[in-house]
Amino acid sequence: MSFSTNSAESWMTALLPQFLEMSGTRLAEIEAELRKLDAGCDPRLVALAVAGMAHKISGTADSFGFADLGQQANIAENTCIRLSRPATGPSAAALKDDVAAAVNALIRALRQAVFPPAATAHNR
Prior knowledge:
The structure is a single chain. About 30% of the residues are buried. The longest helix has about 35 residues, at about 5-40. This protein has helices at about 5-40, 45-60, 65-85, 90-115, 115-124. It is mainly α. Helix 2 (about 45-60) runs antiparallel to helix 3 and helix 3 (about 65-85) packs antiparallel against helix 4 (about 90-115).
């Protein structure tokens, strides 16, 4: 069976709206985790939840041409996994700040992918 580059591009183009919709959903879920962190939830639990979501994002972002998002998701995943380990890591306050920094960086990357500045300016 032969594989055509055109068919792969068609497949990716057809699935791009689903990827963007899924990314928007993940963005809302990650923002909810950040609110939990701000509300006093255990930063390690937030870190674990975000790590799982970041893993899913990093696994698909590159396929759709979002290399920066994939890279940031990978960084967030690795950071959150490291921060979720009880034996390692900073004090509770510092842990909260570190988790928030990783989550916020991922949120920025997701917003840029889902709501690109050029598309926003063009639609005004």
